[in-house]
Amino acid sequence: MKNIIIIIPALDNTSPIKGAISYANNLSSDFNVHIISLFKIQNYENIKRGINIYDFSKYKNFFFKVICINRFIKFNQLNDKNCLVISFCLYADFINAFITKKIKKISSIRGNYEQNYKIRFGLAGVVLAFFHKKILKKIKNIIVMNSFMKKKYSKKNYNIFHINNFIEENNISFKKKLNQNNDLNILFIGNLNKNKKILLLLENIIILINKQYKINFTILGEGHFKNKINSTIKNYNLNSKIKNLGFIKKPFDMIYQSDVLILPSLFEGTSRAILESLFIGTPCILRNTNDNFNLISNSESSLLFDDDEDLIKKIIFFYENFNNNDKKTKNCLLPNSFRENNCVNILIKVVNNLLNEK
Length: 358
Hints:
The protein is 40% helix and 17% strand. The protein is built from 13 helices and 13 strands. The longest helix is centred in the middle third of the chain and has 17 residues. 39% of the residues are buried.
């Protein structure tokens, strides 16, 4: 059986790592899968039995990690005919670029690196993005998650493979109990940072509540703006209407009980929270960017907004037109092109083509 090595910065609960675990689980039926975690390991949950997990956090030096992975490859007699290395995120891509050239490599790009680095690190982020591009050119093969990313990277001489982001649908279980109140129950899931635009959403919802709109708002996430959000809720005396519950590992019951998920992010790859919400049957209000139009193509009640000023208009439109929908049942709204089985078939085909490539 041929081998897949998946290199990740850390085995944790972040969205890119969940994507890596989904790859590992779905490839493990056809390949020997090895997960190499370069730093901490804190999440074994949902990893299938038979997948080998290696903790490289004990190797502190970058070059020593490279040497040890090369030794692992040599010891197991792996080569470009029987092994493919898939890396996720910046540090893993750096490692992948510098390990032996005797095996085939590919990077799974999970978002808009340039914008993300710029927001997080300022000018240093621009430099970091430049070096990441150089590293990706050494790897040559890349997986992108949507048509927007494919178009972006097609100009840069990579071998591009388009595989939509997907979720492991069998892992999503929830109680089919809906809120029967007449309020609009809004949910946000994500990091509480500048890119996610959580403060914009909070501000708009406070405006609407003060205008007597019947709205309940739940925030699930951790991040830089957590304390500011809590103090804002307290200052407006809205603790009964707005809840900031922090990170919740399995928010599926809350997604099902919500009337709409709103994610006003400036940019991202393809949000797992959106995939989960649409799979469960909860419509979304999203910024009109990247591939969000294709994501909501099966949902008549999902909406796109064009800019910050348009967000509150779309919330009002949803409130007035869709909040009185039948609150007895929900059906899957996720398009077929984002369903797990279809995406995994493409993934396996890509892996086999790379391994069989001369």
